[in-house]
Design a protein that fits this description.
By secondary structure, the chain is mostly helical. It contains 17 helices and no strands. The longest helix has 35 residues, at 16-50. The two termini are 20 Å apart. The model has no long low-confidence stretch (mean pLDDT 87).
Length: 438
């Protein structure tokens, strides 16, 4: 095999083991999708059991977003310094504990604390997953693999939402968190067995026993070992989270973080408030969960279509198109009527646009940063974005509380995607092959 494993992985067709790693990232991202939306599935039951109003519910809905913000920022840098694999494993354990304890909560304060802790694990895992999906793919399929990884989020909500609807019809809201805890725990041995450390990270970071660890990863990926490693590239003076603010990256960091933050504000308004809005229209909680499932069916479709189009159309133009469509569809959602079929269709189209926009931003993140800053850059953008999006459910809840109608609230919250498109328009996006070798 070529003595430069990075070049070999970039130009060679992907092995079955590499495809399996990408499939596992989809599963892990699906867990993220279910965990984040678990509180949305459970929110009508929580409000009913504890007698809390919309404003208080908005705070509870936002807690894991705050945790994700903190976890993404802190643990993204950890993944760049100490590796992707063990960061993901640690995050899975945190998520398992958080979901387990959330199912035992008996007050808003208890539940908010455990959702915050769960969010820490989700945030750190997301930053690592984007790096893993991009670094285990060949250059030709890199954008597609990152897009497929991100499809896991709506898939998790679809499958999890369907299961949540069954659980809610047979039990109470606590069963949703119990299910999430079980699945989180089961994924730990899967990652341990089938996901090796990133070859790109090992070659560029070159920690102790780097050659041995590279060959161990290559063997798990079905590739021949190498007898030596090329000298690592010069390390920047600032590594980890600080490295994304070095002169050549600071402009990219500001723009992509701004774009992601603005767009997820729109996205989380939609996915956090759909169950409560639908219940308030007179439908049951299982029906509301079903509408949220259709939202994520649209989200998965939008992500898949965008991922396939990245093979033929410019990434920047695609992402801007999806973001503009997101504003339009969220505004249209505000004019929905109490017809379950129309609600489901409108929400599916809104999910198609909003989640497709997020996938486009994930692919841009994977291209924007070199290996030594990829997880940190992704983590910072996701962290600031999701921490900032804490305000989305809270702001919407406040606007509802002071008497704003759904059309006005939806239009206001949809403007985040429009402003995100403006930020992407001035962002420079690297070609896929150049990014694959960095």
């Amino acid at each position: 095999m070529n003595q430069d494993p990075i070049q070999a992985l970039a130009v060679s067709p992907m092995t079955r083991a590499q495809v399996r790693v990408i499939a596992i990232t989809i599963g892990l991202c699906a867990l993220d999708g279910f965990d984040v939306l678990a509180i949305s599935f459970a929110s009508p039951g929580i409000a009913r059991e504890w007698g809390i109003n919309r404003a208080a519910l908005g705070v509870v809905l936002s807690m894991e977003l705050l945790g994700m913000g903190i976890g993404s920022i802190l643990l993204g840098g950890v993944a760049d310094l100490f590796g992707r694999r063990y960061t993901v494993l640690g995050c899975l354990l945190v998520m398992t504990i958080g979901m387990t304890m959330a199912s035992t909560a008996h007050s808003v304060i208890d539940l908010s604390a455990w959702r915050l802790i769960t969010g820490l694990g989700i945030g750190g895992m997301l930053a690592s997953l984007n790096a893993i999906a991009s670094e285990f793919a060949c250059a030709r399929r890199r954008d597609l693999c990152v897009s497929l990884m991100a499809i896991g989020y709506p898939l998790g909500a679809i499958i999890g939402g369907s299961i949540a609807a069954v659980l809610l019809s047979r039990s109470n809201w606590r069963a949703v968190f119990e299910f999430g805890a079980v699945v989180s725990g089961l994924l730990v041995p899967i990652v341990l067995w089938w996901v090796p450390e990133s070859v790109l990270w090992l070659c560029q970071r070159q920690p102790a026993r780097a050659l041995e660890r590279v060959n161990r990863s290559l063997a798990k990926l079905g590739r021949e070992p190498v007898s030596m490693l090329l000298p690592p590239p010069p390390r920047p003076q600032r590594l980890g989270s600080a490295g994304i603010f070095r002169p050549e990256l600071i402009g990219t960091t500001i723009l992509i973080t701004l774009a992601y933050s603005l767009h997820v504000t729109t996205f989380y308004f939609l996915v956090k408030w759909i169950p409560k809005i639908v219940v308030d229209m007179g439908f049951t909680a299982p029906m509301a969960a079903g509408v949220l499932v259709w939202t994520n069916v649209g989200g998965a479709s939008g992500a898949a279509v965008l991922g396939l189009l990245t093979q033929r159309v410019g990434l920047k133009a695609l992402t801007i198109t999806w973001l503009l469509a997101s504003t339009a569809m969220v505004a249209l959602f505000g004019h929905s009527h109490a017809n379950l079929w129309q609600l489901s269709l409108t929400c599916a189209l809104a999910g198609f646009c909003t989640n497709g926009g997020i996938v486009g931003l994930y692919v841009i993140l994977a291209r924007a940063y070199p290996t030594d800053a990829r997880a940190a850059g992704t983590g910072f953008a996701i962290g600031i974005g999701r921490a900032g999006s804490v305000l989305a459910p809270i702001a919407a809840g406040f606007l509802f509380q002071v008497g704003w109608g759904l059309p006005a609230v939806a239009l206001t919250m949809g403007l985040g995607s429009l402003l995100a498109a403006a930020a992407v328009a001035v962002l420079r996006v690297k070609p896929a092959y150049v990014a694959a070798l960095q």
